[in-house]
Amino acid sequence: MDILNLIRISAKALLRNKTRSALSMLGIVIGIAAVIAVVNLGEGLKQSTANQLSDMGTNLIMVMRANQRRGGVSMGSSNVQSLKVRDCELIEKNAKNVTMVSPVVNSGGQLVNGSKNWSGTVYGGSPDYLEIRKYEIATGVNFTDEDVKKYAKVGLIGQTIAEELFDDGEDPIGKTIRVGNMPFKVIGTLKERGENSMGMDQDDLVVMPYSTVQKRMLGVDYIQQIVCSAASENLAEAAVEEIESILRASHKIPEGGDDDFDVRTQQEMLEMMTSMTSMITTVLIAIALISLLVGVIGIMNIMYVTVTERTKEIGLRMSIGAKNAAILMQFLTESMILSLIGGILGVILGLVLSYVVSLAMSLPYVVNVLWMVISFVSCAILGLIAGFFPALKASRTDPINALRYE
User: Fold this and answer.
1) Per-residue CA distances from 57 to 5, 62, 230, 396 (Å)
2) Residue 76, by phi and psi: left (phi above 0), alpha (psi -120 to 50) or beta?
3) Do 128 and 211 belong to one domain?
4) Domain closes at, from 227, 256, 281
5) How does residue 154 score in pLDDT terms, banded at 50, 70 and 90?
6) Orientation of helix 324-360 relative to helix 266-309, angle to 10°
């Protein structure tokens, strides 16, 4: 049978039951759309994470407190007091591949300016903290080493804090606001950075001298983190080795003993975030593929119903000379048409859906062409599988019994 004629006959048969054909394609459309949307959004999330980590500096190194373990169970790191300001001084003095070092302490607090208040996060660091973390000053000035020595009550605020605590057009510089029970003077504002890939507002912060947060707010003698800047991205691994060696010696950790700190580079954090995103994306793809499988089963079910309804037509065609192969090909073609049209509509819907969600979540819009091809080819294969058994049943119909079928 001519292939074009076969497609024309199959299309006419499907158009006789437009609603049923549309409903049978719905599962394929939803399944493919879900796969395309999930993959594209996953790729957009990965790119967004990479961009934001890059904005923080590709040569950033973070030293964190190691998790505390008891009886083989992780107790977290919040109570670990292994990092001290002295560790920063040793790294700055002895690590040749490190250019800048800053202690980090942070605390949440209620910020108050007159009748306005806002719950924000206060970060304490050295004057180099802003440059290490790639924050830029919009107005005002940074605090100094002298401010650190004096536990000065000064700070720089992010744009979210400025918007929430001050009226439009009001200059925050020189104004005094309160965090908890401690007043401090605003000496600068930071340029806007927006939300990160996890949806956290990067402008909802106050940056103060670490000594101020450490002594006046928290009343502790340890720090929570150390951030360093390697001389270059290529020297980051060498810098990590230097830092680990210095801290192991400073903390008197014996050979073979467990470190009470954890050193990570931007590349390691990117790989960790990418791994987490890939894991979530894989789970969502698996769920979408189940939806696609349900759609294939729906097409198979509809094709069985179609074969049963058209038993008399099949018998009539066989009686005037139609071969079993021709009957088989016709129903296979109908199944393929349903699957391919459903696949095309699913790809279009998936692209639109991922674009809308990317726009709403401020993510880069990334199209994974490979998965589009895989999805479309899968539709053809699944359509073939879904239609094979109903088509086989139709091709093996006894024409005499088929003509008697009511």
Assistant:
1) 62, 11, 10, 68
2) left
3) yes
4) 227
5) very high
6) 140
* Overall average pLDDT of the 220-234 stretch: 88
- pLDDT value, residue 348: 92
Asked if 254 contacts 86 with a C-beta cutoff of 8 angstroms, the reply is no
For residue 307, what are the domain limits? Answer: 3-51+272-404
Could you give phi then psi for residue 231, rounded to 5 degrees? Answer: -60, -35
Residues 117 and 26 grouped into a single domain: no
Q: What's the residue count for the chain?
A: 406
Q: Does residue 359 lie in a domain region?
A: yes
DSSP state of 156: E
Closest CA to 382 of 285, 302, 284, 299: 299
Is the residue at 141 inside a domain?
A: yes
Spatial separation of the C-alpha atoms in residues 54 and 46, rounded to whole Å: 12
Neighbours of 48 (CB within 10 A): 22
How many domains are contained in the chain?
2
Whether the predicted pLDDT of 353 surpasses 80: yes
Mean pLDDT, residues 85-98: 92
Q: Do residues 284 and 380 both lie within one domain?
A: yes
The owner of tokens 């940056």 is 207
Among 193, 227, 261, give the residue marking a domain's end: 227
Which residue type is seen at 375?
S
Burial class from Cβ neighbours inside 10 Å (0-12, 13-18, 19+) for residue 90 reads middle
Ramachandran area for residue 21 (φ above 0: left; ψ -120 to 50: alpha; else beta)? alpha
Helix ranges (H only) for 166-235 are 210-211
Q: Kindly state whether residue 255 falls inside one of the protein's structural domains.
A: no
Residue 264, H or E segment: strand 261-265
Q: What is the pTM of this model?
A: 0.61
How far is the C-alpha of 313 from the C-alpha of 319, rounded, in Å?
10
Beta-strand pair 60-65/261-265: antiparallel
Return the bridge partners of 60, or none: 229
Helical H runs in 251-368?
Answer: 266-309, 311-319, 324-360
Please report the beta strands in 126-224, taking only residues with DSSP state E, as ranges in sequence order.
Answer: 137-140, 154-157, 176-179, 182-190, 205-209
What's the pLDDT score for residue 122?
A: 94
Residue 344 and residue 285 in one domain: yes
Residue 259 backbone phi and psi in degrees, to 5: -70, 145
Q: Is the distance from CB of 60 to CB of 229 less than 8 angstroms?
A: yes
